[in-house]
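Sample intake sheet
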Amino acid sequence: MHPRTRTTNRVRQALLAAIVAGAAANAFAQTSASAAAPGLRELFEAAWSRQPEAQALQARRDAAQAQRRAAEAWTPEPPALEASHKTDRLTRNDGARELEVGIAVPLWLPGERRSTGALADAELAATDTRAGAARLRLAAAVRDAWWNWQRAIVEAEIARGQLDNARRIASDVSRRAKAGELARADQNQAEGAVAAAEAGLAAAEAAATATLQQLKAIAGLSTAVTPATAARAEAEPEPPAGELQTHPSLAELQDRATVAERAAALAATQSRANPELTLATTRDRGASGERYGQTVTLAVRIPFGGGPRYDSRVATARAEATEAQAQLALDRARLESEREAAVARVEAARAQLAAAERRATLSRETRGFFDKSFRLGETDLPTRLRIEGEATEAERQAARSRIELAAAISAWRQTLGLLPQ
């Protein structure tokens, strides 16, 4: 093989290896950044896994299922074994003996078994809807903390850009002051603008750290999260058009009302304690030397019913059912109002974003014009600093408007009962 050909092959192999290594490093960097910068949905799932409701959910389901199995049993309570022994050994000691062994079986009241099963089914369904409502309440807290953090991150980024521009202007002013083109007062004014920008950046970074700590407290994050997460602060998808699923809060109240109604129906059937059926056998003798006799006893125990205790249970159950139905109506009206307000907030945020972006574009162009004229000596320093401040404020307003629109869409989804995505 010609030496030039071997050299060319080696160069190609080296280039190929460099490309593969660069692609692998890029993929690793993206993976690491993604792992170190969880999004809104990941933070919500992490926060939910720490909640007491999530940790106790399976145990509550097991309890509800056990109650359903109890309602399917033949008796409301387990049977009881009864045994007694009588003797006159401590008195006359004539040899009288009696041994009785029996079993007592509680009996269902009319309609009690059916009502107990219906109540168990309602409580089993209420277990999941209760967890769904708890997830939605947690989603509201996570969303609020998340968007507060994103607002703080935007403020810190704008403050950092303002500091960079102030330092660039101060460097230009210092150079021109040394050349005699500008006065010492102009240099002092430029350095003062740098100091003000440094103070603003420190305050913005402190606010970002504080909001991050609040988010960590909710989600239980133990890994280091940096403002690089701001790149992932994308708006949640807008709610789909058409009929939506039942709101978790309304579903919880509906199931709660159903549980209360069925508890009232069960209380109405339990007008007395459960009757008992007893089957016993007795073996006895009257005195020593007599033969033992054998008898069988079949007995029924029927407690008396009614009274203030029964009336209190029924009234309490009906009051809870009435309260749950009234709360359901109030929350349905409240959620409808919140949905309309959320839609209006989204539309207003869109209009504000369009205006803020238009203002930011014009401010950037104006800043470019005055920056060029300042370098040519056609504009004084106070005017240049004023234009810089107006451009920075326009950029800040545009960035805030983007976050506010995303937060408004998130709040809209919250009113519809949709979890973070």
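Comment: The radius of gyration is 39 Å. The chain has a mean pLDDT of 83.
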